[in-house]
């Protein structure tokens, strides 16, 4: 398939082939959501997020949008087609017959919601009640793609009920402690239960015929099994990272850069038995450089390891947050052309450069990067 900027084509098989069409999120009307089981488990016990909720200050929204707009303009200048979501009113409660939470979240991180595999874009279940309706921000784009690309498949995973049975009550305490959290992570005891399939799209890495999926706070084993049945032509691999006391989303822990090369968070190393697939196929797993910051920005859910949350534009080119100088230096030494992008002041709205984007089209076909299974 030959890509044309004038014609919508949905296709992406991996995280590194040349990116030609992308969705970049917006920070409009972003809220800190009210307490709920999945959210409470994620917020570190010493975080300034504890006990706060409501609309984020307008000056921070404006700053985040400035950075996201600049990023989108830079990508467009490089010849990429860039689309943006349509924000809804996130001050409205998310209400179903099974739950109510008094506000929603935002639409800065499309990577959490949308998974592009081949010619399909799949809407994830989402594990947070405040994000149950977030898919609506992308429906105008999905409708446009469906009208313009006859090969496009728009799919949505079954929406979960998200009753209290979906969450372990043990995680409701605000005084669990890191030591116990690490023990639970090693035992694969997470806030989400196996009541029904749950997954966020940002827990999934696309590597040709193989999908690598993190089991953690936002994706459970039933969600991984649902993906396995939904993509029968793919091999779906469950992974976990025992060193992470707050295991949510794989893209600040395990980051493919190009065929044969992955960065791994040195504090959250892939267990030896799960590394075997990569070692058998001559993949190099490299400890990521340290973050340039000792703490996340104010009112930010994410850890300092958003330094690893890079966007690969092609196998030789990668976007890195401008202040993450050590990550940039490492990738430069690994043979990548590094493009610095200022985004740190938008971290609090949903993550880094990978989080705030979702692939629509990457060049290249579906290949088998792991023939020795």
Account of the protein in words:
The protein has 373 residues and is α/β, with parallel strands linked by helices. The protein has a domain at 19-239 and 343-362: L-arginine/glycine Amidinotransferase, Chain A, CATH 3.75.10. Helix content is 21%, strand content 20%. It has helices spanning 37-42, 58-77, 110-113, 139-148, 178-186, 221-230, 272-280, 325-333, and strands spanning 19-24, 31-32, 54-55, 81-83, 94-95, 100-101, 114-117, 120-123, 153-156, 204-207, 210-214, 235-239, 254-258, 261-264, 284-287, 311-314, 317-321, 337-341, 357-362. The strands form 7 sheets. A 3-stranded mixed beta sheet has the order 4-1-19, with helices on one face. A 3-stranded mixed beta sheet has the order 7-8-9. It is globular and about 50 Å long. The mean pLDDT is 94.
| Number of continuous helical runs | 8
Shape: globular
**First and last CA, distance:** 29 Å
Low-confidence stretches: none
| Beta strand % | 15-25%
């Amino acid at each position: 398939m030959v890509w044309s900027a004038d014609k919508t084509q949905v296709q992406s098989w991996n995280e590194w082939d040349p990116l030609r069409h992308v969705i970049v999120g917006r920070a409009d009307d972003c809220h800190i959501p009210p307490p709920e089981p999945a959210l409470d488990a994620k917020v570190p016990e010493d975080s300034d997020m504890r006990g706060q909720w409501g609309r984020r200050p307008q000056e921070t929204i404006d700053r985040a949008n400035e950075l996201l707009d600049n990023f989108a303009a830079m990508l467009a200048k490089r010849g990429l087609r860039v689309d943006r979501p349509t924000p809804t009113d996130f001050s409205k409660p998310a209400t179903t017959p099974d739950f109510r939470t008094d506000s929603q979240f935002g639409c800065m991180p499309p990577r959490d919601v949308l998974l592009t595999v081949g010619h399909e874009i799949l809407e994830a279940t989402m594990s947070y009640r405040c994000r149950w309706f977030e898919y609506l921000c992308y429906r105008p784009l999905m409708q446009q793609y469906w009208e313009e690309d006859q090969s496009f498949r728009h799919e949505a995973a079954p929406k979960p009920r998200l009753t209290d049975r979906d969450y372990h009550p043990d995680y409701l305490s605000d005084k669990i402690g890191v030591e116990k959290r690490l023990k639970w992570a090693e035992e694969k005891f997470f806030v989400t239960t196996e009541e029904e399939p749950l997954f966020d799209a940002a827990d999934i890495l696309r590597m040709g015929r193989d999908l690598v999926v993190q089991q953690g706070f936002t994706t459970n084993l039933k969600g991984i099994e649902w993906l396995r049945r939904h993509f029968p032509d793919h091999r779906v691999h469950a992974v976990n990272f025992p060193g992470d006391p707050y295991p949510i989303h794989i893209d600040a822990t395990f980051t493919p850069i190009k065929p044969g090369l992955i960065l791994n968070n040195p504090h959250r190393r892939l267990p030896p038995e799960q590394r075997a697939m990569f070692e058998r196929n001559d993949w190099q797993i490299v400890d990521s450089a340290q973050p340039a910051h000792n703490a996340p920005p104010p009112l930010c859910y994410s850890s300092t390891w958003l330094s690893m949350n890079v966007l690969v534009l092609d196998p030789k080119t990668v976007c890195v947050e401008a202040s993450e100088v050590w990550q940039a230096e490492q990738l430069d030494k690994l043979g990548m052309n590094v493009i610095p992008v200022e985004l740190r002041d938008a971290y609090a709205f949903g993550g880094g450069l990978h989080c705030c984007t979702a692939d629509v089209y990457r060049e290249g076909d579906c290949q088998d990067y792991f023939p020795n299974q």
